[in-house]
Amino acid sequence: MFRQASSAIKNRVLMSPTQCRSFGSLVSPKELKSALSSVKVLDGSWHMPNANRDPYQEYLNKRIAGSQFFGIDTIKDTSSDLPHMLPSPDNFADAVGKLGISENDHVVVYDTAGVFSACRVYWTFKAFGHESISVLNGGLPAWEKVDGPLETGAPEPVEPKLYKVSHVNKDIVRDYQTVLANARSIQQGKDGAQVLDARPYARFTGEAPEPRIGLSSGHMPGSISVAFNEVVESGEMLNDDKLRKVFESKGVDVDKQIITSCGSGITASILYLALERIGARKLAVYDGSWTEYAAKDDALIIKDK
Fold first, then answer.
1. By CB neighbour count within 10 A (0-12 exposed, 13-18 middle, 19+ buried), where does 244 fall?
2. pLDDT exceeds cutoff 90 at 3
3. Is the dihedral of CA 65, 107, 277, 173 positive or negative?
4. Nearest-angstrom CA–CA distance, 222 and 290
5. Which of 2, 119, 152, 233 is the most exposed place for a label (fewest CB within 10 A)?
6. Interhelix angle for 240-249 vs 267-277, to 10°?
7. Strand locations in 56-170, DSSP E?
């Protein structure tokens, strides 16, 4: 059921004729520290609305030296009433170019939690064909432990670049109609993609309410609960052997189609990165996730008794 992730995925050296990747999908603080001047670093921090925290203000207060801020709640589809759907290719290119990044740069993204919202930024870049990207394992807390250089205050202006989206990787994105059709197939006893739900287990079963008012908890028919904190420990992603054991214990087959979902597409991206590392290739994130799904009148929702 499980296979070793190929070295071409875990530690790519050549991603395209122009994208050179010397890091794997996860980079250690020491690795980043030794190559800080040769990569573009982004703070991709985000917090739940009820946390009453401002990630941009925290970025101004303390950040990795030379980093820019990637606003998950601003670099998004502003025409949607959903929290942070993928932006259009043009809007993504414009926003990223203004951060001083080109399609040829290697990007390392981090967050203040360790391994959390940075994974959403990782998946977003990949959705727009930018494979040369890594997540800092352990995030800002791990960076501070190795005495990585920090900055405070307003960042120095960067020279904008012209960013060109090479292609949109639709294979790693799923929408409502796709997951609804999948849920119906599974409910009818037919084969379907494995849907992995990263929300806390009590929300998955329906025992606990959703944090968004008026939204039903529960889960899609046939979906599998893999709470995101099962693949992260002390702010760092588990090593590959431990990741395999987690997904194997859930009955997940990485050779078959997998869709990850969560509340709004943030922690689903953590599962995406974890599964990618252990060899899953037929892998996608449901962009709208439960916030979109449970708000639909025709959604199929299961609550455990």
1. buried
2. no
3. positive
4. 15
5. 152
6. 110
7. 63-64, 68-69, 107-110, 133-136, 150-151
The pLDDT tens digits of the residues spanning 115-145 come to 999 999 999 999 999 999 999 999 999 999 9
Task: Evaluate whether 21 touches 13 at the Cβ level (below 8 Å).
Answer: yes
Based on the residue annotation, tell me whether 262 is a catalytic residue of this protein: yes
Which among 119, 262, 270, 283 is annotated as catalytic? 262
pLDDT at 4 over 60: no
Q: Which domains does the chain have, with CATH numbers?
A: 26-151 (3.40.250.10), 173-295 (3.40.250.10)
The pLDDT value given to residue 139: 98
Cα dihedral: 173, 119, 67, 32 (round 10):
-120
- Using CA atoms, how far residue 70 sits from 4, 43, 85, 96, in Å, is 32, 6, 14, 8
CB count, 10 Å around CB of 51? 9
Average pLDDT value for residue range 243-247? 98
The reported pTM is 0.92
Is pLDDT of 6 > 50? Answer: no
Quick one: which of 125, 106, 294, 136 has its CA closest to 213?
294
Beta-bridge mates of residue 133: 107
Task: Please write the tens of the pLDDT for every residue from 163-220.
Answer: 999 999 999 999 999 999 999 999 999 999 999 999 999 999 999 999 988 999 999 9
Strand ordering across the sheet containing 258-261: 173-174, 283-286, 258-261, 194-197, 224-225
Q: How many CB atoms lie within 10 A of CB 253?
A: 14
**Residue 14 pLDDT exceeds 90:** no
In whole angstroms, give the CA distance from residue 9 to residue 131. 10
- Contact by Cβ (8 Å): 91, 178: no
Query: If we measure between CA atoms, which residue out of 190, 267, 257 comes closest to residue 226?
Result: 267
Going through 2-73 in order, the beta strands assigned E by DSSP cover 26-27, 40-43, 63-64, 68-69
Mean pLDDT (whole number) for 9-33:
66
